[in-house]
Each structure stands twice: as C-alpha cells, then as structure tokens.
Amino acid sequence: MSYTDATIQLLSPEGTLVENDVTAQYLPLISALTDEQLLEFHRQMVVIRRFDVEAANLQRQGHLALWIPSLGQEAAQVGSGSALRPQDHIFPTYRQHVVARMRGVDLIKVIEMLRGLSHGGWDPKEVGNFHLYSVVLGSQTLHATGVAMSMTLDGSTGTGNPETDGAVLTYFGDGASSQGDVSEALVFAASYQAPTLFFLENNHWAISVPVSRQSRTPLYKRGEGFGIPSVQIDGNDVLASYAVTKQNLDAARAGGGPRFIEALTYRMGAHTTSDDPTKYRDEKDLDFWTAHDPVPRFEKFIRARGASEAFFADIKQEGDDLAADIRARTIALTPPPASSMFAHVYAEASELMQTQAAWLANYESTFEGGAA
Amino acid sequence: MTIESMSMAKALNLGLKKAMTENEKVILMGEDIGALGGVFRITEHLQSEFGQNRVLDTPLAESGIIGTAIGLAMGGFRPVCEIQFDGFVYPAFDQITSQLAKLTSRHDGKTTFPIVIRIPFGGHIGAVEHHQESPETYFAHTAGLRVISPSNPHDAYWMIQEAIQSDDPVIFLEPKSRYWPKGDVDLDASGTPLYSTRVVREGTDLTVAGYGPMVSVLLQAADIAAEEGTSLEVIDLRSLSPIDYAPVVASVQKTGRLVVASEAPGHVSVMSEVAATVTEQAFYSLEAPVLRVAGFDVPFPPAKLEANYLPDVDRVLEAVDRSLAY
Fold it and tell me: Which of A8, A167, A219, B37 is packed most tightly, with the most Cβ within 10 A?
C-alpha cells in the first residue's frame, strides 16, 4: 500500500509546494507559519533522528533491554505534534518520542522505561498532557476518547474560544487498527461527538505483518464508516501533517466531533531492536521510501527558502549534544528501591502492601551486605 | 436513627442518587441504564432526574465503557459503570486488569482512577448462559483493584456510596439473587468500615464464612443447625480484596472450625485463599481442616441444573457435619 489519489500532499518529494484544488485549503496554514516555525520542524526531526540512533546503539551495547525506533516517521509526528495547543491532550503509542520531547518529557524517562526501571515515568499534567506510553495496542484510543468526552461533558470544549477549547489527539498504528478497542473508541467518539482526533501512523508494518493483512481498504475509510470525517495524508510530508492536523483539531475543538487522519509513512527501521526486517521485507520497498524520506525532503524546502549553513550545523550539534547527554545519563542510571513497587499500587492505604513491603525489606536485610 | 425497610435494588438506587446529589462529578455509564433504568432497574429514574450528561446510555461495548471511563476519570469525573451481567464483563477484561488496575501505579499515584464497576453476579435467577456467573476471583487476583460485595440492603446502600468516594478502582459485585428481598436500612450511619469483615451471627461450635449471595444461605444454615443443637458463627466477608482476616481468625480461635462458602467454583478461588490464610494464622486453634463449599469446577450449567450446582443450605450443613466429625 502506498500513496493513493486521495493522499493529501503539500510538499512534493522534490521539496516544492504542491498547489492544486485540494491543497488550496491547507496552504494558507503554511503561509501563516514564520521561518522560525518552519526551521523548528526541521530541528525537531533532525535532533530526534540523532537521539534515535544513539538509543539503538545503547541497546546494542547492552545498556537498554530494548529500543523502539521512530526512523522514517518523524514528519508525521513532528507535523501533528506542532499543531497541538497547550490545553490539548495526547495519547501516544510507544513510538512518539519526538512528540514527548516537544511537550516537555525528558527523554531519559523513555530510556528508563526501556532500561527496565519504570512502567511510566512522567506526570502527564506536568508535560503538556502527554500521557504515558501504551503497550497494549489500541487501548489508549479509548482513554483518549474518554478524556474527550469529559471535555464535552464539562464544557471545556466547543465554546468557540480556540485558546481554551480542548481536543485530544491519539496516535495508533496500522496494526492497532485491527484491535477491537480502536473500533469501540471510534463508536464512542462518534456517538458522543467527542473532540478526538484519531491519528493513524500507517508505517506499513505490525512487526512482520504487512498492512495488507490488516485491511483490504485504505485505513482512512474505516473512519468514514463510523461517520467520522476522515482523510489520508502523506505522512512523510511534515507540512501536510501539520496543516491537516491543525485544521482537524480546530474543527474538533469547535464542536465538530471526532476526526480521523491516516498518515502514510514507513517504518524504515525495525519494529524494535529485537526484530529483523530482513526476514520479511522486500528491499525494493525500502528503496521507495528512502527516496521519500521526510527529512531530506524538508531540508530541500527550507534550503530553497534560505536556511543558513549555520542552522544546519547548529541542529547537528544539538543532536550530538543530546545523544552524548542521554548516553552519559543512561549509563549512570540506577534501579529504584525495591520498596517502590509497593508504593502506588493503590491510591489509598493498603495493609497488604505495607505488610509485603515490610517483609521484603526485612528479608533482604538478612542478606550479607543488605539487599540482594 | 432513620430505619427504612427496602430491597437491595432500592437501596442501591438510593445510594447512587445520594452520591450523585453530593458530587456532580459522579456519573453513571452503562447499557440500558437510562430510560429503562437498567435490566434490573437499579438506575431507575436517575436519568430523568440528573439528565443524559450524568447518566450515559452507552453503546453496547464493555471495553469501550471501561476504557472511556478511564479517560473520564483522567478528566476529573468519578464514573460508575454498570456491566449488564457478570458474563459480559470479559470483553472489558483488558481495560480492567491491564489498564485500570495498573494506571495508578504507572502514574506514581499522581493520577488516580476513582471508578466503580457494578456487576450483578451469581445464580438463582434461572437465566440463560453467561447471566449467572461469579467472576470475582479474576479481579481479586489482580493487584490495584478493590473487590467488594454487599449481602443485604443496608450494606448495599452504604457500600455503593463509599465505593464511589474511594480513589481506587472498585469492582462492586451485586448478588442478583438478593436484589429483591427487603431488609432494614439505617439511612443515618453505615456502622461498618468499607473493607471490613463483619460477624453477622455469633456462635460457639463452628464458623461459617461467605459473602454476597451466600450470607443468607449461611444464616439459614445457622438457624437449622441451632435446632439441632449446633451453634454456628456466621461471618460476612463483605470485601474480597482486601480481605479483613482479623475477625475470621478471632472467630476460628474461638470455635476451632471453619467452613467457607461461595457460588464461585472452588478451584483457585477467593475461599481457597481464606482457607490458606486462616490455616497459617490460626493453625493451633483448628480442630479440623478448613472445608470449602463451592460451585463445581464446571461452566455454570443450564438453568434447570443450577439447583444441583449452587451450594445451598444442605451442602453447607453437610460440610458442617464433616468438620464436626473430625
């Protein structure tokens, strides 16, 4: 599955704006962006790609149990993430590292999860409502829809004030699109006209299973079937991702009900570091998508608009600095105390937790040198 | 003291109404709970009183109900979800056990999930498949959930309100065989903390313990045993997670014998856990092994066989006799 006649593209693979009847409604949103905002898109994509390489290396060197790369999907994520307002909520899968960073998550928190030190790591209220990663595919789309329903019920959306009206963006993938929870989320969002934007990153693979096994129809048409306005975009076009997401978020926050965007992109790397795409992937596919790599495409665009060599040198340095910082901090990480596993199982006091925590502490204190 | 006689169904309805009146963030969600008032009419008239934004007739999707309740809790609400029948909770199993139960811990306690999941459970109503089950063990086995079950109208009235006030997720098991018999409800005071066991009849020869639908069976058994000269102490566990063991252990230290009973199958059950823990904590007081009276380890049978399947007074008394014969 690749681009279709329905795919909305604002930036051609050659790095020039696509001007036609379809793009006409979106291009003003691009024209409204400052040069600084456009450069910021590129900075985020380049820096996260450098981070991604470093994290994969840390896994290969034994410092992480696993790494989940986002290589190739930067434009879909940076574009959609840039369209969000501070009051919006984001429900990620486990691959939106750059959106986490854009909302204020210290990426060492993602590293801690994959080093086996935590199952969460941040307080969504402190990082722009960027919720915790979700490992059970599609489960988060229901949580997102519940938050969106809460906005409808308490009147914090749909008032006509874009500065305060909320919306919820949930990411999910082509594999998750087969999960029942996603269908139920679409039903609930449509039924209650909740301001949920379903952002499907179709990266063409669910580990080794191709999207053709998930669906015989383009996935954005699933949204239409639930009565939800749905579009397909070129997910490797950061401008399309930004503009189409912004338009749909604004429609949702204005009381227009849920929206669905399928972003066509490609998982250029492995599912995770425990995967081996050479066992199932046709390398010709990779060639096609390498030619559609979102980062060089956008670089051509901003170079043509006069981005300086100093800018490119700066963002390369920023990526290298982030990588070095993450490496140093990763290696210095230490496990949390064993007692922490009992600490927040229940919100209210639990005698069972207190008893078991005390037993473990006492037991471990009997070992020579303290805890085992 | 204001005492009123009412059914458990009515007590639950009044308890929900009071909770909704006291806190506007309390909302009800479920299938057919609005205009119909639920298939057991527990939520009758609540939608007309509080409106469709407080009593949500949901699409028919249990995972969707619990999954969106999680989001609604993140958005500041206190959802009370109705699962229509015990056997329909399983489509929501992932959202309850993998999501809801773990999310407080995953958030380091900085976000809490005050969600109540009401499930009518158990047999005795002669219904079709999937309508008479006892799923409590799955939830009691899952860290992060509280699991409780009232056995009488008074407890139902208070426990539903206290469950709604709890910041932890609560699985609230309503014994549907006890929905209609009336009992006295003290509308002024609960008298018993939420997660605590209560001795409901004092005795000296043997302790019988159960919860939810079994408590009335145990009380009937105690009446019959008394006629035969045997004094049974009857314990209502009320809470299956956590379990308040102290009253059970104290009782066994007095009587020396314990029979535990549940409609749920006995294999790897809540009552197996009670038997194991009491054996650990009261070993030198026991005159006989702890005996279990339970549903058989089979799928809940067709309705015309439920009398053969469900533990009744005679099966409780059979176990009492076996215990006393040690």
Answer: A167
Interchain contact, A343 vs B108, CB within 8 Å: yes
Count Cα atoms within 13 angstroms, Cβ side, for B119.
32
Q: Among B45, B107, B130, B131, which one carries the catalytic annotation?
A: B131
Residues contacting residue B224 through CB under 8 Å, at least 6 positions apart: B313, B317
Same domain, A168 and A214: yes
Contact between A46 and A306 under an 8 Å Cβ cutoff? The reply is no
**In terms of CA atoms, which chain B residue is nearest residue A118?**
B106
Nearest to A196 by CA among A144, A255, A156: A144
Residue A14 belongs to some domain of the structure: no
d(CA B141, CA B276) in angstroms, rounded, equals 15
Burial of B105 (0-12, 13-18, 19+ CB in 10 A): buried
Q: Are A369 and A238 within one domain?
A: no
pLDDT tens per residue, range A108-127:
999 999 999 999 999 999 99
A312 and A214 in a single domain? The answer is: yes
ipTM > 0.95, yes or no: yes
Model confidence at A154: pLDDT above 60: yes
Residues A325 and A371 in one domain: no
* Co-location of A150 and A104 in the same domain: yes
The alpha carbon of residue A147 is apart from the nearest alpha carbon of chain B, in Å, by 4
Query: Are residues A240 and A355 part of one domain?
Result: no
CATH of residue A252's domain is: 3.40.50.970
Domain that holds residue A217: 23-332
Polymer length of chain B? 326
Q: pLDDT per residue over B83-98, tens digit each?
A: 999 999 999 999 999 9
Measured between beta carbons, the chain B residues lying within 8 angstroms of A154 are 75-77
* Tokens matching residue A82: 């840039």
Query: Would A164 be classed as within a structural domain?
Result: yes
Cβ-count burial A318-340 (b if 16+ within 10 Å, e if not): ebeebbeebbeebeeeeeeeeee
* Chain B nearest CA to A324, separation (Å): 28
Those residues of chain A whose CB sits closer than 8 Å to some CB in chain B are: 119-120, 123-125, 131-132, 136, 139, 141-151, 153-154, 180-181, 184-185, 187-188, 191-192, 343-348, 350-352
Which of A273, A289, A261 is closest to A200 using CA atoms? A261
Q: Given an 8 Å threshold on Cβ–Cβ distance, is A142 in contact with B67?
A: yes
CB A253 within 8 A of CB A224: no
Name every residue whose Cβ is closer than 8 Å to that of residue A155 and which is 6 or more positions away in sequence: none
Inter-chain contacts counted by CB atoms under 8 A, chains A and B: 135
Q: Is residue A68 part of a domain?
A: yes
Q: How many domains does chain A divide into?
A: 2
Residues A215, A267, single domain; the answer is yes
Tens of pLDDT, residues B253-308: 999 999 999 999 999 999 999 999 999 999 999 999 999 999 999 999 999 999 99
Q: Are strands B239-241 and B146-148 parallel, antiparallel or unpaired?
A: antiparallel
A182 and A80 assigned to the same domain? yes
Is A41 a member of any domain? yes
The dihedrals phi and psi of A256, each to the nearest 5 degrees, come to -85, 5
